[in-house]
Specification:
This protein has six helices and eleven strands. Helix 5 packs parallel to helix 6. It folds into two domains: 170 residues, 3-Layer(aba) Sandwich (Rossmann fold); 60 residues, Single Sheet (S-adenosyl-L-methionine-dependent methyltransferases), CATH 2.20.130. It is globular and about 60 Å long. The protein is an alpha/beta fold. The strands form two sheets. A seven-stranded mixed beta sheet has the order 3-2-1-4-5-11-10. A four-stranded antiparallel beta sheet has the order 6-7-8-9, with no helix packed on it. Helix content is 22%, strand content 35%.
């Protein structure tokens, strides 16, 4: 039997399939990544860091570790993900908003953006997200983010498979990454879920469009926003190709 998949940007993982998130990506999987961010925040910030805004917090799995070091405010565009985050971290303040335009009405000692910033599909969107981070920082504060994929070094048709279980539910997840047009600034991430509940099998599919920019574009937008730019490396648990780039912007102290 042949299947034809829609190429639309569905992001069902952040909507009707959000219930799978705690199963396929439990909070413990994010501890080492988050500890890397904490290290970078403390290394580069020029002021003591107490209050942190996490843009694109998703289901709150990074916040689960961040909150042990800082007072955290989480922001995400998905209502369903915010609900999961509040359930996991009831002591954290969560706001449903878009990292390109949200205004929280206060300043922070640091701003973090984990994987979610890689959903910026246009230069305008990426620039807006970086400027939003800058506008929420105190002078001397640090913005820490990651660049998961870079145009020019993208691995076409990269595929992963993993299986995850909780009580009577088993989920086998197939991930496939494909760039249909290398001349633009995004690629397709296809997710296929084989879900067994008490032995009954169902299949769900999901397409996400994710950003793909040259490193120089990231650097340019960080500097244009007003940041003093620093570069580092972080190792993500799921990345088998070694550490990925981390960008740190420090808001100048006047």
């Amino acid at each position: 039997m042949a299947y034809t998949f829609s190429s639309a940007d569905q992001r069902r993982m952040y909507g009707d399939l959000s219930w799978v998130w705690p199963i396929i990506c439990p909070p413990d999987d994010y501890v080492k990544e988050t500890e890397e961010y904490i290290r970078l925040v403390r290394k580069y910030a020029r002021i003591p860091v107490s209050a942190v805004a996490n843009f694109g917090c998703g289901g709150g799995h990074n916040d689960f570790t961040l909150k042990k070091a800082f007072e955290v405010t989480g922001v995400d565009i998905s209502d369903q993900m915010i609900s999961l985050a509040r359930e996991l971290n009831p002591e954290i303040t969560y706001v449903c908003g878009d990292m390109r335009s949200v205004r929280l009405g206060r300043l922070f000692d640091a701003v973090t953006a984990f994987d979610a910033i890689n959903y910026m599909q246009t230069t305008a969107g990426l620039k807006a997200a970086i400027r939003t981070a800058f506008s929420h920082l105190r002078p001397g504060g640090a913005f820490v983010t990651q660049v998961q994929d870079v145009s020019g070094s993208f691995r076409q048709c990269q595929t992963r498979c993993s299986t995850h279980s909780r009580t009577d539910t088993d989920i086998t997840l197939l991930e496939n990454y494909y760039d249909p047009d290398p001349s633009d600034t995004w690629y397709e991430a296809l997710y296929i879920y084989l879900i067994r509940r008490s032995g009954q099998l169902t299949m769900e599919t999901d397409i996400h469009h994710r950003g793909l920019f040259p490193m120089d574009t990231w650097r340019q937008f960080m500097k244009e926003a007003g940041f003093e730019l620093h570069e580092d490396r972080i190792q993500l648990p799921e990345e088998d190709g070694g550490p990925i780039p981390a960008l740190i912007g420090v808001k100048p102290i006047a």
